[in-house]
Amino acid sequence: MTLDERLTRAVHHVADTVIVPDVDLDAVRSTARANRHRTLALGAAACAAVVVVGIAGAALSGGQRAVGPAQDTSPSTVEEWTPERTRAEGSPVDLLYSWSGPAPSGLDAQLYCTGGCDEWKPDDVEGRTSHWALEVRQGGRSALFDVQGVPWARYFDEDSILVQDGINQVVRFRLLQADGTAVPLRRVSDLAPAVPGPDIMLIMDLDTYRRGTFGPDGPGEHPYLVDDRAGTLQLLDVPWEIEWWGPNVDEFLWGGDDCRVIWQRPDGSFDHHDAADCQNTVAPTDPGWNFDRFAEWLEPGRMALVEHSADGIPLVVHASLDRGATWERIEVEGRPLTDALLQLGWT
Amino acid sequence: MRQSDEDRFTAFVRAQSASLFRTAYLITGDHQRAEDLLQSTLVRLYQRWPRVEAMEQPVGYARKVLVNQAVSWWRRRSSREEPLLLLDEPTWDGGVDEVTEHERVWNAVVSLPPRQRAVMVLKYYEDLGVVEIAETLGMAPGTVKSHGHAAARRLAELLGEPALSRAQPTEEARS
Known about the structure:
Chain A is α+β, with helices and mostly antiparallel strands. Chain A folds into 2 domains: 36-184, no CATH class; 239-347, no CATH class. In chain A, 17% of the residues lie in helices and 32% in strands. In chain A, strands 6-7-8-9-12-11-10 form a 7-stranded mixed beta sheet. In chain A, strand 14 and strand 15 form a beta hairpin. The longest helix of chain A has 15 residues, at 3-17. Chain A is flat. Chain B folds into 2 domains: 1-81, no CATH class; 82-175, Winged helix-like DNA-binding domain superfamily/Winged helix DNA-binding domain (Arc Repressor Mutant, subunit A), CATH 1.10.10. Helices cover 70% and strands 0% of the residues of chain B. In chain B, helix 1 (3-28) runs parallel beside helix 4 (58-78), helix 2 crosses helix 4 (58-78) and helix 6 packs across helix 8 (141-158). Mean pLDDT of chain B is 75; it is low at 78-95 and 163-175. The chains are: A alpha+beta, B mainly alpha. Chains A and B meet through helix 1 and helix 2 of A and helix 1, helix 2, helix 4, helix 5 and helix 6 of B.
């Protein structure tokens, strides 16, 4: 029996044996209508469950994070959508794809939405307005924040999440915490020196992502210096032609585009390697490919590029173990990619 | 909504919900989540029903909404899980109990990254072609083929299949 036949039989077996629940059409209709109509404000019980925080104007003591102007936390009216109302009346939805779930420190986030809630058209082109709220949780505390559209979020440090949100090409960046602290970050036009470090992180271009097709086949992440004390984001001064980046920009700046791998030399300048006779390529960090072993193998100083046929068959791994001083070309067609990594000294 | 629209929506749900649920379940592997996804998909359809009904393929739209929600959910969940690795499993020789074989194959499918899994479900359960899968997932046909091939190679590795020979380009690939 071929793999095709095995897959067909197994998938249909699972599908045919799963218990299909009855659909409650009344619930479908009532939910649809409830999302459409605006209702009265929440009860006190729902409000007491979380801390709704604004952004205060005064700096915190001890030289810690400054916060911005206060949000209105007065009881909501029929026309006013507060984060707690969105949470109570909306539904939990997924954060943008890069969110990886609770951090080891217990820091986590949950997005809520009510209305059209079409993440690809956050302003709901049919005229109904979607409302979004983000709950940040850690160690039994939680805080709700207003967000616009489905945000992009990533852990910044052990108690902060960097959140990018906005609609209609207007985006904002904030560091949000479970105690309600929100540090706005403004993008500085000057480029930051291309120096890897703990405050360097890859941030997606949300506007470009939303204007693309569904599915982040090329989300356009770029390395930024995030200065939480100054409240700034600065794009790093790196070669513009790097389309995708390696996984460890805090330690080693490298990436690629098509058949070229580009990396930073010890003196700070950039060098490149062109894979000869190369055609289609994919980054070893591409989430759409099952290259999870590469993540383990890509220690700082190591680089790789996978060349594949037009049919998507991996053909060659181009790799360096020594910051580009030497390159190896390993044929992988017909073999698992792990064979290439073993050949490159992976254990 | 007019009563006639309501009646047609009811008829659509009765005809398609089981299949949509099975697709959701195959992608997420979670009964409750599949039920939630089906519910939210039907809510969206109901909200847009007159427009959806006027589409050339309402079920295609429903599948698109459901699958994309399922992939989003599964993408987030799978990033926290260890992939299943069955490198030492024996090659199936036809002598293993059929149910066990199905479970083994299914476990391998479950271990795939979300988009690869969605491509495989749409291919092997929904029996969609590359172009239809591309439209459902909102990606280029070439990307569908890349995901499909990566998934097939991974499954072959997990299931002890012999190494795949180089595939001949399809008519689509040549064009």
